[in-house]
Amino acid sequence: MANILVVDDERHVRNLIRKILEENGYHVTTITTGEEALVELRKAKFDLLILDLKLPGISGNELLKRMRQEGIELPTLIV
Question: Which residue in 12, 27, 33, 72 is a FRET match for 46, CA 20 to 30 A apart?
Fold first, then answer.
Protein backbone atom coordinates (compact mmCIF):
# COMPACT_ATOMS: atom_id res chain seq x y z
CA MET A 1 0.00 0.00 0.00
CA ALA A 2 1.39 3.41 -0.97
CA ASN A 3 2.02 5.99 1.72
CA ILE A 4 0.97 9.49 0.60
CA LEU A 5 1.61 12.86 2.24
CA VAL A 6 -0.95 15.60 1.53
CA VAL A 7 0.11 19.16 2.39
CA ASP A 8 -2.66 21.75 2.08
CA ASP A 9 -3.77 24.51 4.43
CA GLU A 10 -7.43 24.21 3.41
CA ARG A 11 -9.15 21.60 5.57
CA HIS A 12 -11.86 20.70 3.04
CA VAL A 13 -9.26 20.09 0.32
CA ARG A 14 -7.15 17.89 2.63
CA ASN A 15 -10.19 15.93 3.75
CA LEU A 16 -11.48 15.40 0.20
CA ILE A 17 -8.12 14.18 -1.09
CA ARG A 18 -7.66 11.92 1.95
CA LYS A 19 -11.16 10.44 1.58
CA ILE A 20 -10.70 9.63 -2.11
CA LEU A 21 -7.27 8.10 -1.60
CA GLU A 22 -8.20 6.07 1.48
CA GLU A 23 -11.28 4.69 -0.30
CA ASN A 24 -8.86 3.41 -2.94
CA GLY A 25 -6.62 1.66 -0.43
CA TYR A 26 -3.87 4.23 0.16
CA HIS A 27 -2.44 5.25 3.53
CA VAL A 28 -2.68 9.06 3.81
CA THR A 29 -1.05 11.53 6.18
CA THR A 30 -2.30 15.13 6.07
CA ILE A 31 -0.31 18.21 7.09
CA THR A 32 -1.26 21.90 7.06
CA THR A 33 2.08 23.73 6.77
CA GLY A 34 5.37 23.43 4.95
CA GLU A 35 7.25 23.40 8.24
CA GLU A 36 5.26 20.40 9.51
CA ALA A 37 5.71 18.66 6.16
CA LEU A 38 9.49 19.02 6.30
CA VAL A 39 9.56 17.47 9.79
CA GLU A 40 7.36 14.58 8.63
CA LEU A 41 9.42 14.03 5.48
CA ARG A 42 12.59 13.76 7.58
CA LYS A 43 11.18 11.01 9.79
CA ALA A 44 8.90 8.91 7.55
CA LYS A 45 9.04 7.40 4.06
CA PHE A 46 6.40 8.45 1.56
CA ASP A 47 5.69 7.28 -1.97
CA LEU A 48 4.01 10.49 -3.14
CA LEU A 49 3.66 14.11 -2.02
CA ILE A 50 0.52 16.05 -2.93
CA LEU A 51 1.41 19.69 -2.37
CA ASP A 52 -0.36 23.04 -2.36
CA LEU A 53 2.02 25.81 -3.43
CA LYS A 54 0.32 28.54 -1.40
CA LEU A 55 0.95 27.62 2.23
CA PRO A 56 1.39 29.77 5.33
CA GLY A 57 5.02 30.08 6.41
CA ILE A 58 7.15 27.95 4.10
CA SER A 59 5.52 27.96 0.66
CA GLY A 60 5.23 24.86 -1.44
CA ASN A 61 8.05 26.10 -3.67
CA GLU A 62 10.28 26.69 -0.65
CA LEU A 63 9.44 23.23 0.69
CA LEU A 64 10.50 21.66 -2.61
CA LYS A 65 13.74 23.67 -2.54
CA ARG A 66 14.54 22.51 1.02
CA MET A 67 13.70 18.93 0.13
CA ARG A 68 16.23 19.05 -2.72
CA GLN A 69 18.85 20.60 -0.41
CA GLU A 70 18.36 17.77 2.09
CA GLY A 71 18.35 15.05 -0.57
CA ILE A 72 14.68 14.16 -0.07
CA GLU A 73 13.54 12.82 -3.45
CA LEU A 74 9.86 12.15 -3.83
CA PRO A 75 7.38 12.23 -6.72
CA THR A 76 5.26 15.33 -6.21
CA LEU A 77 1.83 16.32 -7.48
CA ILE A 78 1.23 20.06 -7.19
CA VAL A 79 -2.33 21.26 -6.65
Answer: 12
